[in-house]
């Protein structure tokens, strides 16, 4: 089959090459509740590039010879079911050959050669959802993967967004932010978003009640601190600040614009992969200079609970739009990654694997 294979350390153009003779997994090799999926579309994520840049340097230390295949998000059709799924009691979602499914795999699966820039993948049935009928396969790959499932995780960390909650989303136009925005609005929140002016219209179309252009406002935390100075602003303070960009300043200044019982939730761990922010913001007590607001830093581990909640958001009409920046052919995956690396994509970048 065709598959992009990770061969050496570096930027996508150096790190991956397209194999047309990669051994395809077969139906006969399926065990347990795994399924064989013919991938129609894959969506790509910043984490794929992190893996390309970090992983090959450990590869010689791994106890097996890895042929990592990049990308985690997928949508496609089931072509075979593992033996456990042939009994209806173990096949709760009634998955069948031909069912369109979507979801994402874990990083260890990428390392073991099950990445989604491949025509066929083997994936546990517990990591997929049935594709919502209202979206195409390309849109499903963008919605139900890392971005959508991370949005589910962030929303859950708030304890559940309720009507009237006031929410600020940093990076509101991105893959995660655009889904989070729609879900928070769908649940009745008042949502303010931070993005560049170029994406302000998109954020408004997706429901943002106000958009702050970080390129015009100057440091956003100072802009907000200025706005929230004075009497009677408590009611306007946010219940939650949800950060998809990496906003240490936004957290440290948050007592000015976030309620005392509010929570700051971030998904960006910075260069220390979350270690430093965890120590600074989660462990450091206020008397040692810590910020007196609850702080969470999250790392997605794909799971049935999250992918199915995302599918519910789509089926219930909370998330109506899959924001797709662009689609690339399978042969153009390097160009797709280079577009991702500009950090200027408006929504998800999709690769047509075998559409
Ligand atoms: N912890 C986890 O499990 C997890 C999971 C998924 C993603 N992530 C991380 O989360 C980050 C976002 O992921 P994504 O898939 O949403 O990325 P993305 O699609 O590239 O979106 C990032 C967005 O951030 C906006 N942005 C850039 N600089 C900004 C700034 N200074 N202030 C406010 N907004 C800014 C960009 O919009 P403009 O062009 O308008 O600036 C862009 O739309 C990435 O670093 C990713 O690695 C972590």
Automatic annotation (TrEMBL):
It comes from Bombardia bombarda. This is Enoyl reductase (ER) domain-containing protein. Pfam families: ADH_N, ADH_zinc_N_2. Gene3D superfamilies: Medium-chain alcohol dehydrogenases, catalytic domain, NAD(P)-binding Rossmann-like Domain. The lineage of its organism: Eukaryota, Fungi, Dikarya, Ascomycota, Pezizomycotina. It comes from the Eukaryota. Residues 17-351 form the Enoyl reductase (ER) domain. GO terms for molecular function: oxidoreductase activity. GO terms for cellular component: mitochondrion. InterPro entries: ADH-like_N (IPR013154), ER (IPR020843), GroES-like_sf (IPR011032), NAD(P)-bd_dom_sf (IPR036291), YIM1/Zinc_Alcohol_DH_Fams (IPR050700).
């Amino acid at each position: 089959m065709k598959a992009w294979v990770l061969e050496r350390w570096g930027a996508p153009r150096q790190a991956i090459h397209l194999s047309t003779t990669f051994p395809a997994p077969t139906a006969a090799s399926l065990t347990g509740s795994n399924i064989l999926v013919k991938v129609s579309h894959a969506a790509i994520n910043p984490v794929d590039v992190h893996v390309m840049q970090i992983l090959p340097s450990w590869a010689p230390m791994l106890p097996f010879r890895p042929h990592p295949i990049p990308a985690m998000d997928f949508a496609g059709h089931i072509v075979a079911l593992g033996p456990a799924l042939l009994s209806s009691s173990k096949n709760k979602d009634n998955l069948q050959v031909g069912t369109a499914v979507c979801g994402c795999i874990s990083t260890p699966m990428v390392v073991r050669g099950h990445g989604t820039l491949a025509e066929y993948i083997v994936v546990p049935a517990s990591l997929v959802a049935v594709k919502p009928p209202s979206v195409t396969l390309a849109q499903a790959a963008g919605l139900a993967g890392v971005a959508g499932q991370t949005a589910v995780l962030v929303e859950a960390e708030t304890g559940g967004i309720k009507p009237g909650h006031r929410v600020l989303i940093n990076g509101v136009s991105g893959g995660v932010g655009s889904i989070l925005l729609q879900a928070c609005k769908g649940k009745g929140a008042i949502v303010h978003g931070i993005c560049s002016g170029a994406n302000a219209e998109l954020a408004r179309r997706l429901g943002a009640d106000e958009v702050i252009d970080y390129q015009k406002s100057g440091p956003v935390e100072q802009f907000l601190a200025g706005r929230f100075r004075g009497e009677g602003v408590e009611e306007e303070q946010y219940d939650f600040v949800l950060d998809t960009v990496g906003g240490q300043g936004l957290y440290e200044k948050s007592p000015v614009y976030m309620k005392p019982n509010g929570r700051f939730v971030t998904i960006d761990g910075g260069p220390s992969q979350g270690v430093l922010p965890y120590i600074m913001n989660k462990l450091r007590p206020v008397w040692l200079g810590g910020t007196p607001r609850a702080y969470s830093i999250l790392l997605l581990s794909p799971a049935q609970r999250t992918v199915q909640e995302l599918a519910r958001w789509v089926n219930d009409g909370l998330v109506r739009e899959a924001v797709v920046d662009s689609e690339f052919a399978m042969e153009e995956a390097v160009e797709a990654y280079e577009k991702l690396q500009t950090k200027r994509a408006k929504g998800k970048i999709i690769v047509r694997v075998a559409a």
